[in-house]
Amino acid sequence: MFGRIAAVVLGSMLLGIGINGFLIPHHLLDGGIIGLALILHYYFDFQAGLWSALLSVPLILYAWVKDRPQFHGSVYGMIVTAIFIDIFSPIQFTLPIWASAILGGVICGIGVGMMLRYKTSTGGTDLIAYFIAQKRPINIGLLIVLMDVCIVGLGYQVLGLQSVMFSSITILTAGVCANICYEGF
């Protein structure tokens, strides 16, 4: 129980720092539900954390039906992550875009992978990847990357080619790091 709580808090803090500190200053996207929330943040100036939680509600309800332990970890993970994303919104680092893309991906990937390892998640597409990986012999990191590529592709209209290219670096890095944290080397 202590491990799950620590994974939720630390993973959520890492996501809040990675998103606000590295992605938002350059209008980069993470994938999944958080990526959709970032698109809404950039376009309408909505709170990214709040919207990531609201957009995750259908996935959380699915977890309620299919896997109650995962539901509990995900609903808490979703709430804590949303809070840390919004609390850490003033944190922004001024690094070159390529460094922000890589560091943001590493930090977010470690946060997500840590949460998945302890059967928790942010409630977003990480949860979809978790359920698919439980049923099929597909690498969870690859699943996250594939879904994230789709989300980043949606951001093209709002953010342009440069953001999409560097956001792709972010999600590939995050997918690799999440997989390493979840499955090990």
Q: What is the topological layout?
A:
Elements (H helix, E strand, L loop, with lengths): L1 H22 L8 H13 L3 H19 L1 H20 L9 H21 L7 H11 L4 H15 L1 H4 L1 H23 L2
Summary of the model, kept short:
The chain is mostly helical and 185 residues long.
Tell me what you see in this structure.
- The chain has 185 residues and is mainly α.
- It has one domain.
- Helices cover 80% and strands 0% of the residues.
- The protein contains 9 helices and no strands.
- The chain has helices at 2-23, 32-44, 48-66, 68-87, 97-117, 125-135, 140-154, 156-159, 161-183.
- Helix 7 runs antiparallel to helix 9.
- The longest helix is centred in the C-terminal third of the chain and has 23 residues, at 161-183.
Short descriptors:
mainly alpha, 185 residues
> What is the H/E order?
HHHHHHHHH
How many individual β-strands? 0
- Give the % helix: over 70%
The fraction of residues in strands falls at under 5%
- Integer count of domains: 1
- Name the average pLDDT: 89
Structural class: mainly alpha
Task: Determine Rg (CA atoms, Å).
Answer: 15 Å
| Uncertain residue ranges | none
Question: Between the first and last Cα atoms, what is the distance in angstroms?
Answer: 25 Å
Q: How would the global form be characterised? A: globular
Number of helices: 9
Q: Major sheet: size, sense and barrel closure?
A: none
